[in-house]
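Below: protein 1.
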Amino acid sequence: MSFKKGTAKMFKSIKALKTKKERDKEGLFVCEGLRFVEEITDDFKIKMYVASESFAQENNLDIYEKRAEVYVFTDKEFGEMSDTETPQGIMAICHKKNYSLEEIVKKADGGFYVAAEELNDPGNLGTIIRTADACGADAVILSKGSVDVYNGKVLRSTMGSVFHVPIITDVDIKETVMMLKSNGVKVYAAHLKGTKTPYKFNLKTKTAYLIGNEAKGLKEETASLADEYIKIPMPGRAESLNASVAAAVLMYETVRQREEEK
């Protein structure tokens, strides 16, 4: 069986995509792992597939070649390009997809958004994206200073949801909140100063949640832009919740209320 051999130039450029600077420069990101690669939807353009020799020998590459060219590297080379401890032998180099929040807001019927300010933990961001996908959110919005959505740890923790829900990055949070409000979206800030729980609000209308940094929470300036502060009840002794858990509680209460109308 013959394969298209990857070149030294390809090896260097793919390995460089581990850095945000290079991903931003090239407009590319790496999707790694068999299940993850299979999740790539048709509206994401794939530049190429990359496989290890072991993977190529044990699997039919025809299914990948129907969509983009496949290049094979030695197992050692693939391991150096990989961002995981136990590489599965297959990755896709994908073009980033840019979304217009204004267009999404205008098209959205019910309207349901999660906006995070300076979220730094890859696992938290990935979990929020995955939960937003499960809940049918229209978009996940990330302020400047947030962890890069195309970071390998973030991508893996989304479990493929990065391909299903629009993600708008590097926004000015103030401008974004004002735009949402001008389009009839009710903006809620998850905040310890809140006096009402999510169960007291009508979340069947256009809704957006502001989620703050894991350690500092929302900046006061940002929180003050919200229409309402919203408080998650905690009858136990914990003082706060993980950012992704807090976001999940709010998203699923939105789902619960909207499911009642069906």
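Below: protein 2.
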Amino acid sequence: MTSFLYIDEAFVDLTGINGLDALGRKIRSQVLRCTGIPVGVGIAHTKTLAKLANHTAKRLQAQTGGVVNICDPIKRDWVLRNTDVAEVWGVGRRMKMHLDGMGIKNAMDLAKADPWTLRKNFSIVIEKTARELAGTPCLELDEPDPPKQEICCSRMFGKRLKELPPIKEAVATYMMRASEKLRAQKSLCKKIRVSIRTGMFNPDEAKYANGVVVDLPYPTDDVRLLTAAAVDALDRVFRPGFSYSKAEVLLLSLCQPGEYTDDLFAISQPTEATRVMAVLDKINERWGRGTLRSASVPSNPDWGMRREMMSQSYTTRLDQLWTVSCR
């Protein structure tokens, strides 16, 4: 039977591996020795149970040593009976209030509840949670995230902007990032919304906020078309005499290729544009974001966000690793 290992924020499939308890202790010991970070290890037949085992391992660390294996039904049932339903992955406090009204107080109650009733009253997510607690795997090891229905990119400016050209640069920059996310989930965009606003908290500063929705000629992921539409839309909302602090671009009416229907003579995105975007993404993936970008996107704008106090990326960037010197 499939077994899952949950180590804080990572799942591992242990199918075919023996000595799971010893393996869990070895992993925990090695992570502690190499990083100095104490972790909990939970082992079970489903992802939800593995996460519950991990929660128990940390909650009862003195008794468990940080490792809990509930593949055994007796141990699993003990953990279910002694875990409040609010501690179950995907439940939370608000859902707990509804479940309390149905007499579901702990994880065991949820595991024994009728899945179809849960689906009817709440959602398929709670149904899957109940089935997983009962030992039936419903979640893949790596569940893909569903495509987003909207994609937003907004930033505060590093300084107040009073002129239109730098605001257009900012909007072009934000659209570059939003379109990357759009292509990453293989979606197309039918509409965009562009908005700008001043600061809203300074009583001595004049306030203004406005936005406009733009229909695109066809569903697209082409950053050139998206940027042109967004920048042109700024002319309709910009008002001189204000000090602007923020801009936002929002991609709306997203769809997957083939999900939309138009008449026979409707314009669609040219094949050449799709190829150009694929090359753009490959170059930036290989050489770093922003290596190839729209001409309207500056490399080091003076309106960029202030990041003097930003924390270093010690665990994700080689040039920001800690350095240790011995004296």
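The chain has two domains: 4-133, 151-287.
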